[in-house]
Write a structure and sequence with these properties.
The protein has 244 residues and is of the alpha/beta class. 41% of the residues lie in helices and 12% in strands. It has helices at 37-50, 62-71, 91-99, 114-122, 135-146, 171-175, 180-190, 195-202, 206-220, 225-231, and strands at 10-12, 20-21, 27-33, 55-59, 77-80, 105-109, 127-130. Strand 3 (27-33), helix 1 (37-50) and strand 4 form a beta-alpha-beta unit. The termini are far apart. The model is unreliable at 1-21 and 159-166 (pLDDT under 50).
């Protein structure tokens, strides 16, 4: 269990110029996102023992986290709790991943269900650490994710049995199912445009755009616009037949 000791050097929503060096002389900056102050303090303390000179930023919600990430583009890693007030399911994860796709997210959660862990990774998390792990495991998880690896607890690393209905087709195959007009709408969704903006640019009605969006969701087998952005982030649209 991560011990609750004195807090690491941190500033809630703040910034410091000192940081632990990474390979190549870069600074190490981490963001902790959790709505429980005692756990933020415990996590900050555990991180400070492993990375004494690290700069830690803290946020008690997704809105604050996005503000901090927007002000501090050099943050190297976000440590995120899934279960926070006002957040349902993977909403917080997808919100941060959509706005800041280059910042890896390590989930640190009280959830221990392997299916949820693997689903979090499918939604874009770079790893998953249960809150009950020891400091050595937490340190290893942070180091591996910072090194570009995907971290899962060793006893839960094996993928769970697929849900009924089988696995989805590769995302490129799902994108190829879209019509040319749906591909144009998809491109605008990926740019963050709203339905009204899409309707104006395509010179069509709002209801037509809504119908296109519904079909895109169905064909891509996703449930939200944020999931569209995350799942299609690395698709080669020229190969998929959708250069837009």
């Amino acid at each position: 269990m991560i011990a609750m000791t004195a807090s690491a050097q941190s500033d809630i929503g703040g910034h410091s110029d000192e940081a632990a060096p990474l390979a190549g002389g870069q600074a190490l900056r981490l963001l902790i996102v959790d709505d429980h102050p005692l756990f933020r303090e415990a996590l900050a303390s555990a991180i400070a023992l492993a990375f004494p000179e690290a700069v830690l930023h803290e946020a008690d919600g997704i809105g604050t986290a996005c503000e901090i990430l927007g002000r501090n583009p050099a943050i190297d890693l976000t440590l995120l709790d899934l279960s926070m007030q006002g957040v349902t399911g993977f909403e917080g994860l997808t919100a941060i991943r959509t706005r800041f796709p280059r910042v890896p997210i390590l989930i640190v959660s009280g959830v221990t269900d392997p299916r949820i862990m693997h689903e979090a990774v499918r939604h874009g998390a770079a790893g998953f650490v249960p809150k009950a792990v020891d400091k050595a495991t937490l340190t290893r998880a942070i180091s591996e994710v910072l090194g570009g690896a995907l971290f899962m607890p060793p006893n839960l690393a094996a993928a769970p049995a697929p849900a009924r209905g089988g696995d989805k087709a590769p995302i490129a195959e799902r994108v190829a199912r879209l019509t040319p007009q749906q591909m144009r709408v998809l491109g605008m969704i990926r740019q963050g445009k709203l339905n009204k903006q899409i309707a104006y640019e395509l010179q069509v009605g709002d209801s037509t755009v809504k119908a296109h969006v519904s079909e895109i969701l169905r064909k891509l087998e996703v449930i939200s616009r944020t999931q569209i952005v995350i799942e299609t982030a690395y698709v080669d649209f020229d190969q998929a037949g959708g250069g837009f």
